[in-house]
Amino acid sequence: MVRQPSWDRTCLKKGTWSPDEDQKLITYIMRHGIWNWNEMAKYAGLSRSGKSCRLRWVNYLRPNIKRGNFTREEEETIVQLQKMLGNRWSAIAAKLPQRTDNDIKNYWNTRLKKGAVENNSASAIASRSEINSSLDAGEENSSDADSSMFLNNLLDSPIPTLEDFPLPATYIFSPSDCNRGAVVDDNYTMEDNFISSEKQPQPMSPNSQLWLHDPIYVRDSDYDPVDDFWVNPFF
DNA sequence: AATCGCTTCAACCGCGCCTAC
DNA sequence: AGTAGGCGCGGTTGAAGCGAT
């Protein structure tokens, strides 16, 4: 039932993504959006499973991903939310929309968890805050009360919308700059490494007006406007 | 310079949920 | 109602990087 089609299991590449593969996936999504990961992978010319493509996009290639060091506030948020929610990384990531759940999970497992187990989480924060504040003398230390207030504000705050993450009209995504977030790369065009649409079967028309106005994955029960942004960041 | 051990993090795996048929 | 396909989530793995010896 959960098993993938045999084609996926026998013919698909695994392991680290090459820059060329990144570029193919980005190019395809820029042109057609996200509609069916398994089919998209084939049409984009990728010998990857849909799951692999989705993971690569969500965790690495999508726009506005913040990478690099976590700030003290982010760290406090993660610790507090983990205390409240447990290992529900996607829920925690929802409050840090520029961080991926995988990033948060890794960060927790490799850095915060140790401190949280050894001491309690508050003292872990304090000790790490000292380190961070020594690195960033411009910020002041926060007390537990401040931390609690911050968390309450966070939980009460609305989830960001598209307008909170504006993209320039000339926004072009370059695989080589993925780690640094949004950039404009004049040398990169969407046509690079792209399979001609004439050669592709079109089980549906991703460029149709229907697609543009009716994004998939939107569920009535838990519709979140920020999802629109992540699904269709370029439209 | 070579080796070892530790850390980090990208990627995979398996499972469960949701939806369409 | 049952089944299949697709997606999302959390746990885990393994390669790469880096410092210590």
What does this 3D model show about the protein?
It is a single chain. This protein is mainly alpha-helical and 235 residues long. It folds into two domains: 19-64 and 169-231, no CATH class; 72-162, no CATH class. The chain has eleven helices and no strands. The chain has helices spanning 6-11, 19-32, 37-43, 50-61, 72-85, 89-94, 101-118, 121-135, 144-156, 209-213, 225-231. The longest helix is centred in the middle third of the chain and has 18 residues, at 101-118. The radius of gyration is 20 Å and the shape is elongated. Residues 1-9, 121-144 and 159-235 have low confidence and may be disordered. The protein binds a DNA duplex (21 and 21 nucleotides) through residues 1-2, 4-5, 14-17, 36-38, 49-52, 54-56, 58-60, 87-90, 101-103, 105-107, 109-111, 217, 219. Residues 9-61, 62-112 form the Myb-like domain. It holds the Pfam family Myb_DNA-binding. InterPro entries: Homeodomain-like_sf, Myb_dom, Myb_TF_plants, SANT/Myb.
